[in-house]
Amino acid sequence: MRFSPGLLCCLFLLCLGAAAGQEGQERTVRRDENLPASNPYTSAADVAKGHQYFLGHCAQCHGPEGEGGRGVNLTTGRYRHGGSDRELFLTVRRGVPGTEMPGTHLSQEEVWRIIAYVRRLGQAGAEEKAAGDAQAGRLLYEGKGGCPACHAVNGRGGTLGPDLTQIGLRRALRFLRESLVDPGASIAPEYRAATVVTLQGSTIRGVVLNQDDYSIQLRDLGGELRSFLKNEVREVQIQKESLMPSYRAAFSETELNDLVAYLNSLRGEP
Amino acid sequence: MCGVLLATGAVWGEDSVPYTRLLRADQEPGNWLMYSGNYRGYRYSALDQIDAGNVGRLRLQWIYQMKTTHHVETTPLVVDGILYATRPPNDVVAIDTRTGRTFWTYHHPVPEDVHACCGQVNRGLAILDGRLFMSTVDARLIALDARSGRLLWEAVQADYRAGYAGTAAPLAVKDKVIAGIAGGEYGIRGFVDACDAATGRRVWRFYTIPGPDDPHFGTWEGDSWKTGGGSTWTTGSFDPELNLIYWGTGNPGPDWNDEHRAGDNLFTDSMVALDADTGKLKWYFQYTPHDTHDWDATQVPVLADLMFAGRQRKLLLHPNRNGFYYVFDRRTGEYLLSRPYVRQTWAKGIDARGRPIPLPNTSPTEAGVPVWPGSDGGLNWFSPSYNPKTGLLYVPVREKGEIYFKVEAVYRPGMSFGGGGGKENPADPGHGVILAMRPQTGEILWRHRMQTAPWSGVLSTAGGLVFGSTMEGQFFALDARTGNDLWHFPANDVSFANPISYLSHGRQQVAIAIGDVLMAFGLD
After folding, report:
1. pLDDT per residue as tens digits for the range B354-383
2. Span B4-106+116-523 CATH architecture
3. pTM exceeds cut of 0.80
4. Closest-CA residue in chain B for A229?
5. Checking CA distances to B114, which of A100, A223, B332, B503 falls within 20 to 30 Å?
6. B139 vs B5, B68, B288, CA distance in Å?
């Protein structure tokens, strides 16, 4: 199974790449020679320094708390471009070609310290101790709360809301609590809600998966993927409220604590 | 070692695309439900909105830009207006066929140390019961929820560090996913796997290189079978009535140097017919015994029921990479016919049982020997198309020889184990042809010549058209009866893919990937 044009093309691209990016490439390579596989700079002091660098070099896109903006949310603990220390290093060093994510000329030490901080961002809730009873919270989650209708944990449950398998690592207690009582307070861009009213007058609600000036793509409340041309519907409303109901009234203070404790205990594999 | 890494519960749209829909794929031409369009390997669309009269007005409707430097070899699936495509190396996207906008994207992280022979390519997906299935270049088979793009399970097929890679679209059959493996240039031992579609658990494995406990053992010198290749990197076909899966196997290893593998080297370069439930071998046919030219038999098997020599028969049609076109009775594997369809200089002929009679001095040497066809065929992995309306088989072919040479081959896990290769022959730059063939005889009715030997398959339609793409990225439509060139679109980049057709909001579209752009055409 071999095809020579393929091989030729690859070689060709390599040569082109070498010619075009030679200088920068070489410098990068020399500077990062003997890159260790895991981060040698992970002390509290390193994280603190990393935080400072992050605010200076990264926050304008990724947000001061890593919550995302022009850049992706870095608090999820999941990395499309690879989650090993080495991979994170290379992502930050080289940037993500073809996107806004730039590479950086910071020193190796500085990059490692930023990685230490980025890791901490990805584990926002990891070190806190919750007050409630996680076991009781689990029963509420699966029973009265009806949360699995919209959320998955370890692969079980709906996909209208975010996967909660690792939510305990990703989110601080304060944030978890806020998610329950005031879900609209912070909605990740990929979970923005919209309502489409068709010319016949029927209403479709769902999560906005994609949109441009001429069309909008939704996951409706039943989980179906839907696409609408904007000039073929009566109205498209992007909502400020979350599709998730507020549980402020539905749960007592103790119940909320229990739920938060349960969410905080979720630290499994994604 | 088919360890399931993640096995999870419910899928959202479990009721969508059940097996019964796959069985009747021909009856819903508005969708493209599997790699070849149906289980018979036809790559034919019964849609006829676009025809010889209006194809001149075909217009680009949308494009999807993949932003990759890998070859895009994907055949998308389309289900009820949503197109699912793989994006190299192993991402999956769900796209609205009306606007080209994405619903979701799934990213499979590929380890840094994957070195697949022929690029980190992927040829597509299978779908069943709301789950999408993909083979990955790090030799896994994975399942996604088609509605959300969420990972459902992930099964390790083999160790990618030993050269195993998944590149072919799997085939969903009953409650199973059938998946092959690539790596024939790395001394792998090939197999076809069937995994449970719901959980990823392996149900059976058929080794394409028989082991010591198999009655077909003993066609390899010494231990050479252990690194014998026999990859299975193109999607097979399925006959539900006979309950047989037909899958082509790849070259023996080392490809070009046969010094240490005397014997026929079963089941390399073969067609194998496997029981769909058990993976047991029903019959096999080896096209090129003891191959030294890298002539993988991994062309899509076409299953057609036709009058043959005065009798209605269940046939298997196969334009093989070795330059000969073959016809079999697919119940029994009985060899019925062969005939060269490109220039060939290596065989005096094929004997009555289908075994080639090789000519002397056609095996690779240190200095090099010119032979036709080249290592890449003939036909390669890209698809032919059988059109039941015209009754013709359309085959995109590489008319091209190569100078075959050999070098020493030493097996080291994960290192290439080719032992030679094919060099360009300066006396023959080669060219491409789309040919229309009468499948019962191999007689060629028309030829459409192309400047360069192609890497793209063809689609034929009930609208009387054959769609294909040149190596320069001209996407074209030919008249299926005459081969007349009716329309072309200059996409202007290398083309390594197969076209498909489907309905979007009731209107026919034809889609293909050229360069790193997936493009869909339709009438306004």
Report:
1. 999 999 999 999 999 999 999 999 999 999
2. 8 Propeller (2.140)
3. yes
4. B99
5. A100
6. 13, 20, 27
